[in-house]
Design brief:
Radius of gyration: 21 Å
Structural class: alpha/beta
Helix content: 25-40%
Distance between the termini: 18 Å
Number of strands: 12
Strand content: 15-25%
Largest sheet: 4 strands, parallel
Order of helices and strands: EHEHEHEHEHEEHEEEEE
């Protein structure tokens, strides 16, 4: 690949790696630049929860549901195992007052269209035996999931590379040159790029 790709992606977190993958899969020539290594920043350091349970109605819930619908197929699409677990998630309570608040929360979430239900303490402990006997109830959302975040990002990066993207790690961007609003030149320690577009 030349140093004049169709798209130059700066940053190798989930947004950058997923963008590189989808663009390369559609036939664009792509270079992804990462200052350290893929998944080094915030994406690779979070706990990896896909938490449908508490997402607010509107764009927040719409976005997580879009991901959740595709998540189980992604391991096959990316041809990589990123440690996906889809056992659902719990919020649990210890007092009657907390249970009353949780019941209202579950009713609101159900009204938003979220697959969630209120369960008693025994049901919660059957799902999560580590919970103490003081737990008297919980909300359970079967859509909640968890993954290994660094592996998730690298799965996108590896798949992007298989589709022809060039992944350049340990390559911090030192300067950007512009022509009006358009970035025309991207300079790193080792290389200079003149992409058609920068994201």
């Amino acid at each position: 690949m030349t140093n004049s790709p169709d798209v130059l992606v700066i940053g190798g977190g989930i947004v950058g790696s997923a963008s590189a993958f989808h663009l390369a899969r559609r036939g664009a020539s792509v270079v992804l630049l990462e200052a350290n290594e893929l998944a080094y920043g915030a994406t690779g350091r979070n706990l990896g929860y896909v938490w449908v349970h508490t997402r607010r109605s509107g764009p927040e819930l719409d976005l997580v549901m879009h991901l959740r619908r595709e998540l189980e197929e992604l391991q096959g699409i990316l041809d990589d195992d990123f440690g996906l677990r889809t056992e659902g998630g719990l919020l649990y309570v210890h007092t009657d007052d907390q249970l009353a608040t949780l019941r209202e929360f579950v009713e609101r979430r159900q009204a938003d269209g979220v697959d969630i239900r209120l369960i008693d303490g025994d049901e919660a402990r059957a799902l999560a035996p580590i919970l103490p006997d003081t737990v008297i109830g919980a909300s359970f959302c079967p859509l909640d999931a968890k993954m290994d975040s660094p592996r998730y990002v690298r799965a996108f990066g590896n798949a992007a590379a298989r589709h022809g993207a060039r992944i350049v790690e340990h390559s911090p961007v030192r300067s950007l040159e512009r022509d009006g609003a358009r970035i025309t030149r991207v300079v790193t320690d080792a290389e200079t790029f003149t992409p058609a577009r920068v994201v």
